[in-house]
Structure formats: C-alpha cells, structure tokens
Design goal:
Blueprint: H1 13-21, H2 27-45, E1 48-51, H3 54-69, E2 81-85, H4 115-122, E3 126-131, E4 148-149, E5 153-154, E6 182-185, E7 188-189, E8 194-195, E9 205-206, H5 212-220, H6 223-229, E10 234-244, E11 254-257, E12 267-273, E13 278-284, E14 292-294, E15 304-310, E16 325-327, E17 341-352
Parallel strand pairs: 2-3
Antiparallel strand pairs: 1-3, 4-5, 6-17, 7-8, 9-13, 10-15, 10-17, 11-14, 11-16, 12-13
Length: about 350
Amino acid sequence: MAAVNVNPLTATASELQTRLADNSITSRQLVKIYLDQIYHYNGYLKAVIATAPEDLLNKTAAALDQERIQGYVRGPLHGIPILVKDNIATGPALGLPTTCGSLALQGSKPRHNAGIIDQLQAAGAIILGKANLSEWAWYRSDFADSGWSAVGGQTQSAYVRGGFDRNNDSNGGHSIRKNNTELVNYEKDQDAGRSTAAPPVFPAHIDHTIEGGPKRMLRHLTEREALQYMNDQYRARIINVWRPLNNPVKDCPLAICDPRSIDTKDLLAADRVTPDFAVELYYLKHNANQKWYWLSNQTLDEITLFVNYDSNCRLEGSDWKTCPHAAFINPDVPADSPPRESIEVRLIVFTRSE
C-alpha cells in the first residue's frame, strides 16, 4: 500500500472526506494510518481501550471504498474511521468489548448495537475502536480522577509534558494507605495579608452524609477493594484521628457532640464544592438537647478519635448517628496563646458485619 501524506493529529473529517472524494486516499489507507497511530502511542496515552479486529476493519473499509467507486456516497462520514466511548454498546459483529472502563464488565457481550452505532454505520462511519473514559462515565465516584478507568488506566495528554500521575498522593496497593494530610494553622501571614493555611472550621458539621460517605471511600479504593469490601458482608466506617502539633491546643479547640443527643431533623445536607472535587456533608442546627465535649489544653499525647461515617446508618430502623464536630473560640484563653496547630487523618475501616 503506497504511503500517503495525512497528519492524523490535525486532519479533520471534512478534510479527509475531500481527500477521499478526489481519490488521493482510500478508507483502507485511513484505517492503517489511525491504527498505526494508536499502536505507536497508546501505550503511554491510554486513550483507547480496544480496537476492532484489523481484518474486519479492512473488509469494512474496502466495501465502503467500492461503494464510492460505484458513485454511492452515504454522507459526510462515508469511509471515515472513528472511535466511540466504551460505554456505548457494540454488538458481537463489531468484535469490540463494552466495559464502561470497569473490571465488572470485562468479558460482557451486548446482544446488539446501541442505536447510535447503527446510525453511524448506516452513515458509512468505520467504528475503529473504543475510547477510554472516566469509569462508568464518572458515575463510579464524584471523586474519581477524570479520564481514569480500571480497564484503560489513566488517559494522558499528548500536549502536556510529564503527564498526569493519579498516584501523586503516595497511594500504594496496600490496605493501609498514605493520603494527603493538612497542617492546620490559622495564624495570619502579616506580610502577605492572608492566611498561610486553612483555618479551623467553626460551623458544627459531619464531614459525610449517608450518601456522601461511600463516594468518599470510592475515591481511595481500587476497583478490586470496592468489590470485595463495599457490600453487606462488611461494615464500613470513616474514622477521624485528630491531635495537636507542636503545642497544646488552647484557642479554637475541637469540640465533639455526643451523637446520641442529636435529632436527625437538625441535620442539613449541603454540598461543599472545590475546583478538585465535590462532597456532600451535614451541618447541624443548634438544639438545647445537644451535649458537646472538648479537651481543655489538649496535649500532643492526647488523641481524639470519632466516627465520621458508618454504613450501619443505612440499615433500616437504625438510629446510629455519626459525630458532629466543630472548633470554637474559647473566651478564657490568654491573648498571647500560640495559634492552633493540628493534624487530622481519616481512616477507612472495614470490619465483618455481625
């Protein structure tokens, strides 16, 4: 097959259609060009989950080339190779998987094409393969990395040097994982006129709602871990570990509310949205029946643990509640007390259901 001059990075479908119309290229040649591009770069870019069998693609392209020779052009997509996202069903005749990027669907075989696939084929498009995607089209978790799936891996940009590392928080394949922790110091940076770090949080809150807890866990679990542990056989909890750093905490200590003293009617669900993620949490309205506790002058050796999410909350008839908490300003603290410095770590804990 003679070499042809086509830039697969910049060529548009309309430009390729012009080339096909003036017989300076064939659909079979286009199939080879784009397959070569995928084979050469996909090991790094991870943009494509699967390609159709090459003999099938060549047969399809040759038939479309023959139609063109006979004067029959179906439309602007006639003979153009395309990729479709891997959450669009393709039947057995195309020789392609449909996994939504999930290990749970590896090996699944839809009985027939999605309607859009039939329409594309009727228009003369060549279904070259399946593109990678955010797993389950980002329905796996609100906190999943964009462009990552368990089947296809993390997609990369051809235009960003160094690429995207989804493990840059030092996550490993172990049951105990290291994730980002924050040093909380609300002291003001006088030179810059701004806070050097996140201040203590004063509104009473619970970090995760009943629906938000599982989404948070999915952000930190592998597909295999999620399938193994996030089911009725295991009780899942998110436990916060909080302690002072450098000095005992005097001002803005952490207060914990006894969950048995709260009324669920006083919990208000709200969204906390940042540029990187969104999470649903509860705010707590004041009620005179609530019982709050705190450690006066909490030292570095005194550690506070409390439950932020418990899957037992989801059980029918359960009255189990997790712990509202908040910082508060202590009016009895001397003005020259050092600013609060603290560290908070969240643990995802699974135990067998009773």
